[in-house]
Design brief:
With about 120 residues, the chain is mainly alpha-helical. It has 2 domains: about 60 residues; about 50 residues, Uncharacterised protein PF10928, DUF2810 (Ribosomal Protein S8, Chain: A, domain 1), CATH 3.30.1370.150. About 70% of the residues lie in helices and about 10% in strands. Strands 1-3-2 form a 3-stranded antiparallel sheet, with no helix packed on it. The longest helix has about 35 residues. The two termini are about 35 Å apart. The relative contact order is 0.13. This is YibL family ribosome-associated protein. InterPro entries: DUF2810 (IPR021230).
Length: about 120
């Protein structure tokens, strides 16, 4: 399971535990309340760990892209015909600023990274 799916599953579990905790608090069941508080704490800790791991992977991927020999912003015409551009440039990686990787790298416009000038 990839990190995105794992994070979604953990968030679903956290939501389910919070709803069950609210129901237990309405009933006044102290043992169940304590159990769900512990469960919420463990799931919250795992979510934080998974997010940290996700950030490390994005950072590592961004660093690998920055080490490629050449980068430049792509024109609108190049963005419109990405298939042609990918065929003409060997090893091209395109990063959009609104993706997680783009936000992590801090780019402001669609940028292409390649080992050689294009």
């Amino acid at each position: 399971m990839n990190l995105k799916q794992e994070l979604q599953t953990l968030n679903d579990k956290l939501d389910k535990f919070r709803r069950k905790l609210a129901a237990a608090e309405q009933r006044g069941d102290a043992t169940v309340i304590m159990q769900f508080k512990k469960e919420i704490a463990t799931v919250t800790k795992r979510i934080a760990s998974t997010k940290g791991q996700q950030t490390r992977e994005l950072s590592k991927e961004g660093t690998a892209l920055k080490t490629l020999g050449f980068k430049r912003a792509l024109t609108k015409a190049e963005q419109a015909d990405m298939g042609k551009l990918n065929k003409s440039v060997k090893g091209l990686v395109v990063v959009h600023p609104l993706t997680a990787l783009g936000r992590e790298m801090g780019i402001k416009e669609v940028t292409g990274f390649a080992p050689a000038k294009f």
